[in-house]
TrEMBL record, chains A, B:
This is Cupin domain-containing protein. CDD domains: cupin_YdbB-like. InterPro entries: cNMP-bd_dom, Cupin_2, PKS_Associated_Protein, RmlC-like_jellyroll, RmlC_Cupin_sf. Residues 42-80 form the Cyclic nucleotide-binding domain. GO terms for cellular component: cytoplasm. It comes from Luteimonas viscosa. It holds the Pfam family Cupin_2. Its main location: cytoplasm.
Amino acid sequence: MSHDPPYAIDLAGKLAGFDGHWQPRTVATFNGHDVMVVKVQGEFVWHSHDDTDDLFLVLAGRLRIELPHAVVELGPGQLFVVPRGMQHRPVADEEAHLLLIEPTGTPNTGDPATAAQRRTI
Amino acid sequence: MSHDPPYAIDLAGKLAGFDGHWQPRTVATFNGHDVMVVKVQGEFVWHSHDDTDDLFLVLAGRLRIELPHAVVELGPGQLFVVPRGMQHRPVADEEAHLLLIEPTGTPNTGDPATAAQRRTI
């Protein structure tokens, strides 16, 4: 998928098409990155990405990003970029819907052995 | 601004802080890219970016992206990536608010001579 087709990509519509938490779906590609939507709930694992910043944009619900010395609380329309190399743990007390952007192939846990398989929808 | 500070970036709040159309403001950086918000209204210029894809996400209002052989209509929560090298013209009949992501330094018109100066807020 080197180019996206010439139609609007509806994020809520994409999110309505699947279940499961912490399983990002790629909805577009951009400069070697995957633009993804994901449903999250509960605590993810502490991890870091040595080679990429990690962009989170909340579309619905609330997300807490725990950092070594801070906690960032995000609601709809709010974003945060975790700098590369920084340990972080995303947590959502109730289901939240996010847009994520990461280089294509980045393991979501920081470790290919435990990462979710990335699928395109 | 190599790293963003550890607090949520509220897109609507950033947009409330300035006026003017087609004048993107950088609100975060990410892997060598600027994450920007912009208010648009009317017709922009036809242009292309040879070296970068061009990501548009509508936050409020409606945007029409005219392409050489297609038109993409976008509403809130909808995105489109214009592939690098493709001529395009964004048009908004009424004011719309967008999130844009482009490599830091990309001229918004495709031409440094006519581009808006990019500012960080």
